[in-house]
Amino acid sequence: MAENSPFLYEQIAGNIAGLIARGTYRTGERIPSVRQMSKQQDVSISTVLQAYLLLESRGLIEARPQSGYYVRAPEVDQLPEPGISSPGPDPSRVSLHELTMMVIRDTLNPNLVQLGAAMPNLELLPTDRLNRIVARLARNSGAEAHQYQLPPGLPELRVQIARRAVHAGGQLSPNDIVITSGGIEAIDLCLHAVCKPGDIVAIESPMYFGTLQSLEVHGLRALEIPTHQRDGISLEALQFAIEHNPIKAVLVISNFNNPLGSCIPDEKKKELVELLARHDIPLIENDVSGEIYFGDKRPSVAKAYDTKGLVMLCSSFSKDISPALRVGWTAPGRYRSEIEWLKFTSSAATATLPQMAIAEFLETGGYDHHLRHIRREYASNVARLSQAVMRYFPPETRVTRPAGGFVLWVQLPGAVDSLELYKKALENGITLTPGYLFSPTNQFSNFIRLNAAAWTYPIERALERLGGMVAEMAG
Amino acid sequence: MAENSPFLYEQIAGNIAGLIARGTYRTGERIPSVRQMSKQQDVSISTVLQAYLLLESRGLIEARPQSGYYVRAPEVDQLPEPGISSPGPDPSRVSLHELTMMVIRDTLNPNLVQLGAAMPNLELLPTDRLNRIVARLARNSGAEAHQYQLPPGLPELRVQIARRAVHAGGQLSPNDIVITSGGIEAIDLCLHAVCKPGDIVAIESPMYFGTLQSLEVHGLRALEIPTHQRDGISLEALQFAIEHNPIKAVLVISNFNNPLGSCIPDEKKKELVELLARHDIPLIENDVSGEIYFGDKRPSVAKAYDTKGLVMLCSSFSKDISPALRVGWTAPGRYRSEIEWLKFTSSAATATLPQMAIAEFLETGGYDHHLRHIRREYASNVARLSQAVMRYFPPETRVTRPAGGFVLWVQLPGAVDSLELYKKALENGITLTPGYLFSPTNQFSNFIRLNAAAWTYPIERALERLGGMVAEMAG
Q1: Interface test with B, best of A139, A148, A158, A451 (most B CBs within 10 A)
Q2: Which of residues 434 through 463 in chain A touch B, CB cutoff 8 A?
Q3: What is the pTM of this model?
Q4: pLDDT tens digits, residue range B37-55?
Q5: Domains plus CATH for chain A?
């Protein structure tokens, strides 16, 4: 790429925004000089200068004469985070079926700017490498790739997953793991294994709508627990709920709740596991985005603190390797044989070739390098999207500061109905996810979730138009 | 292959046995002369002679002086078919969970002779061609292969499936079809879509155990309907059952019931559909083996007679193309949007690359040729296995004469318990499926199902040992 390319400027600006988003440089702090940054990013001084000018023009940094560039605070203060959620105390049936499928169908429309579904950015996926692996496997594996891999699934893949789990504090053996067709199937099987129709499941609020749909399908009642936009589920509220309701399972997205981006601190995860162990309640832990952290180190999984086999850890490779290979897994503790049976009964097996491809990708060692790359990119894209919301949305708007993943949760001025906005946006060629979908009791009618996986010119323009619509609706 | 190879003799003998099994030559009829057969099979006269001698030594044909070779009857009469099933009149909860998983785990053991699971013969699958297709797709498709294909699934594949359905009398549009992760998922989603826990589902008896497991998982009650070993479900009994029970769905394997090998005649399929239409009851139709017919023409699907959108046709490519690509589908009539929602909720999507590979395989035209080949082979293997049962099992044994597919259903002498035999066989390195698994009310304790997909020397020896065990247990 030419040194004077505007794309390069954008890229470097994005990198720097990412460093700020990850907390490497904090509000009010001085960022490295143009010269230092030029060395650090290995680009010319004029490129860094252009990138700093871009960031300055967007209100993210400011030049102070004789001193250097500083991370700006004021605009961030104008867009505070949403507060902790405060759902009602009673469990409720879930029924968001039609609206969910409407939003899902939007994602099939290539003419829309896709801010709706939480799809990973395809350009950040290691597709070339995966395709080479698949081609090689197809050439060399003969009939092996066409042989059923009945539950628990391909042994080589389970070995690789057990090795990776060490990074998240999990002490898993390959025999603890059951391969599933993506993380959604893992969660669905776990819910099915420990609950029967009518049972109550305590969940974070807001909660990813796919999981709410799973509750609806199984006839379960959701008990929404207040959830902090940074630290996740409130243990005090959960304890109260457990003492007053016959809760059969608790479900959390421990690392980077979708849509909040919250991360339960490791010490709190331990407390959560201990609390549930005292009441003998299984914890279904969704960690699908756990590898996409913006901080310095991989947060643990709650499973790391599980001594009673009550934690059912679920994850997948859909967010960081390939959404369409549909490979996920669960380490369901004491419920393993039940999960194997349910997996066999509902879909017999997960496709073999995708399992072989993921196993090979994990084994041949590019995974860590790839993850470092996409963490940087996602942090940067989340920061840019957040800045764009800041720039184009009315000042009463609030937005989360995710610790990982690639979605933003935006609280609109009170008068704005997210379903109205969804419809208006659709007419204007933009899709987003209305807050209605994230609570069975309609806690979030003036919230929207934005997919921040990609940052492009059309996306910036779409946010500008969206901001105009919100301002108009806010009156 | 050398002209004087014993393998070649076996192969030709198998081909001829297949012709007899398919009814091309019937009991008592003269088969073509050695010279005619030599032309027809394009092998030398001495090869045909050797093949005829093999068949004669096995009691399948007999030489009549001055006349030629005839299809023998007597031994066939010694091994009659099992009678029509006669289950009790009441619906019952299903609970065969542990035994089923035990049998499933056997299939993961490469040291056993596999007569248990109904696995297709890997050597008959078009793995080389599929692997070439996969390799080419991986090289050329870029990120496309890693993009979600949310329900209803890959458009190109749905087009191909709709085209194929014409052969079975189905008038499907691509929009009628929802792609699933194998046929088992299709059936499971259909059951889930039309029934709630406690509901009664009428099924053929015996019924494939995976489907019984699906009933168990969803808390449904099975009402077993007497089923004829050739013509399938009894309509009289079904009508009676409908008039006396609040049946919420009927489930049949219309073409080549597993384990019976029965095929509901097309005219009877029409009556079945009309009967259910009068009572507004959905029919879940499993047609996974429909393409593996031994007769002259593809039997229809019941869906062909569906005018009210009540038939939910389910099929897959697991029996004839690849079990491990896990690609199936359903055409669920009026329940389509419900099925799309359930599919999204339980596993989001089916893997994309397998869908692309199957679509390409279907489109590039080798499918018909391939099917002709495997129909011949399966018919031959089923005939050989059947003859081996005839030869090695006690004379009171009865065995089905399947019209397609690749399983045999064997009724053992009354005193023989199939679970005892299963255990004894396992100790001797052989796995089979005990009849217990095919009925929730234990109708078939002295039956076993044998997978007849392959015919090898170890399989023949295993049947000999098995026959010895049965004889011993029969006392």
Answers
A1: A148
A2: none
A3: 0.84
A4: 888 888 888 888 888 887 8
A5: 6-77 (1.10.10.10), 82-123+369-474 (3.90.1150.10), 145-366 (3.40.640.10)
